[in-house]
Amino acid sequence: MKNEEGMLTLPTASKAAGAQIYWQKWLPGKYPKAVILLVHGYAEHSGRYQYFAEHCVGKGYAVYALDHWGHGKSDGTPGFVPSFSVFHDGIGELARCARQDFPELPVILIGHSMGGLISATYLISDQSKFSACVLSGPAIKAAEEPSAFLTAISGFLSRFFPKLGVLELDPNGVSRDPQVVADYLADPLVYNGKMGARLAAEMLGAMTNIQNNAGQITLPLLMLHGEEDSLAAADGSRFLDAHVSSQEKKLKIYPELFHEIFNEPEKDMVLNDMTDWLDKQLAARGV
């Protein structure tokens, strides 16, 4: 397996124009059969997906990933984003990089948690870049719905106090594996502070967007979720399954699993479920 890294620049039309975004790719020894664009979750970074990448590369896929604006090794302020569209801008640039390297290969979008929300809302505006999509524990619905008061004042706080910390996630909800939690807490590239008011409001807006427009998604879609996910409700994946227009779709809920299903003790089973489904999609395309 070959690993390369670099920086890409957000375009002039972006609300974070000129920002430098870290990205990396993992490549198999032989020519890949398809490209995976991996979209990580809130507060984390692409480096946490080494095991994921090793699995996918072993199955013949190339994996491209970035650190979102405000995350990991990229520019930006942790816990804040000027606009949710900045995350979309990063995905667009990463897709462009992958297309330059492998212009003829199918590209598959895979998003986890907030990355699932980013991916799903990206599909509403442009799903033509991709051949299929996988959502892991997507943040479509919060595990605990925000209070009416918080919803009412979120716009005010976002405008006037955009970096005010309003939400803190419990790291113990990440995985049932205590070592995963310990590594998460010790990782200097993981943000353990509170989510700012602007980002919280932007996420709520994105959740509303996907809940209102899920029917526009027609891409082959696999939704994977842990039943005991305390950070992003499994009902969000059930909602998507019921409302997207994809003729090829599959929902799998794993009993007992927590939020990061790719980092649970059963991760090999989950990863095999994912790549088996992807292989089926590629076979249907004659790949």
- Give the CA-CA distance, first to last residue: 21 Å
**CATH fold-level assignment:** Rossmann fold
Order of helices and strands: EEEHEHEHEHEHEHEHEH
What's the CATH superfamily, by name? Alpha/Beta hydrolase fold, catalytic domain
What is the makeup of the main sheet?
8 strands, mixed
Question: Low-confidence spans: pLDDT under 50, at least 5 residues?
Answer: none
Helix content: 25-40%
Would you kindly provide a brief summary of this structure?
The protein is an alpha/beta fold. The chain contains 8 helices and 10 strands.
Question: What does this entry look like structurally?
Answer:
This protein has one domain (2-284): Rossmann fold (3-Layer(aba) Sandwich). Helices cover 37% and strands 20% of the residues. The protein has helices spanning 50-58, 85-101, 114-125, 148-160, 178-186, 197-213, 234-243, 267-284; strands spanning 2-9, 20-27, 34-39, 61-66, 107-112, 132-136, 165-167, 195-196, 221-226, 249-254. Strands 1-2-4-3-5-6-9-10 form an eight-stranded mixed β-sheet, sandwiched between helices. Strand 3 (34-39), helix 1 (50-58) and strand 4 (61-66) form a beta-alpha-beta unit. The mean pLDDT is 95.
